[in-house]
TrEMBL record:
Keyword check for DNA-binding: yes
Alphabetical list of SUPFAM superfamilies matching this protein: Homeodomain-like
Protein name: TetR/AcrR family transcriptional regulator
PROSITE patterns to which the protein is assigned, alphabetical: HTH_TETR_2 (PS50977)
Keywords attached to this entry: DNA-binding, Transcription, Transcription regulation
Start and end residues of each stretch annotated as Disordered: 238-275
């Protein structure tokens, strides 16, 4: 069985969105009519949920495999059939959860009429998802640092995927290099999220949308024009959950300047987020 496989409905959920002992996913003792791969997938989901809650509550260093199994209602032998150890399970939860986040952001970006709106709406999706599952936010943004070199590699890969949303930004004023500026913006957004989550303000993350949207646009448009764009553009309705579950966001052809003839917020292709 592919260890990264999840039932389609579960692919939309962040790890930690449910408890590991969710009764709806209980597997009755004795002969089961469920195929072995379905049983294994269900146990894996429960373990990832149990891991997220355990790590968020106890910290990565203090969480044990026994704690995770207890939270999931799954035995240690089953855990070791699915994962090589705590780090392997943690990275699996992180990769699956951040993949859900990136897909939801990409769907919001693709539904927007232009780049400026796309950046704002993808940020909205990110902030709402993390605020909705605070245990995952703590595990993925704070506790990932305790994993060591493998955790640092995961952070670097995640930030690279975030950079894809800035793949076709307008040339910044003053001859500033685009790559360095995008790195600064992406890093600044990530550290802002880290500070808020670490301070216990995860539920307040959506309140950061105006500041982070301006922060992302201003280096490329100038602060005045960025503010004007953000005030002028309408809010895009949230994409249906099913649209975010596809492996790759829909492709959209560039449509040239906006209605005012200003090329600074042209319609661009959705980012290739590596999914």
């Amino acid at each position: 069985m592919n260890s990264d496989a999840f039932p389609a409905a579960e692919a939309l959920l962040l790890p930690g969105a449910r408890t590991g002992r969710d009764p709806a996913r209980s597997i009755k003792r004795g002969p089961s009519r469920l195929p072995p791969d379905v049983v294994a997938a269900t146990q894996r989901e429960r373990l990832l949920d149990g891991l997220v809650h355990t790590v968020a509550q106890q910290g990565y260093q203090h969480a044990t495999v026994s704690d995770i199994c207890r939270a999931a209602g799954v035995t240690r032998p089953v855990f070791y059939e699915l994962f090589s150890g705590k780090e392997d399970a943690f990275l699996a939860a992180h990769r699956h959860g951040t993949g859900v986040v990136i897909r939801r952001m990409a769907a919001a970006f693709a539904a927007a009429p232009d780049w400026c709106t796309g950046i704002r709406e993808s940020l909205r999706a990110l902030l709402n998802l993390l605020a909705g599952v605070p245990a995952f936010a703590t595990m993925a943004v704070i506790e990932i640092e305790a994993v060591g070199p493998a955790g640092r590699r995961e952070i670097a890969q995640l930030l690279t995927r975030f950079r894809a949303f800035f793949a076709e930004v307008p040339e910044p004023p003053g001859g500033v290099g685009v790559e360095a500026l995008v790195d600064a913006v992406v890093g600044g957004v990530y550290r802002t999220l880290h500070r808020a989550i670490d301070a216990g303000r995860t539920d307040q993350l959506p309140d950061l949308l105006p500041a982070l949207s301006l922060f992302c646009l201003a280096p490329f448009l100038g602060p005045d024009e960025a503010h004007r764009r953000l005030v002028a553009v309408p809010t895009v309705p949230a994409a249906p959950a099913t649209s975010a579950s596809s492996a790759a966001p829909p492709q959209v052809t560039a449509a040239g300047p906006d209605a005012d003839g200003d090329p600074s917020c042209t319609r661009i292709d959705p980012p290739d987020t590596g999914q």
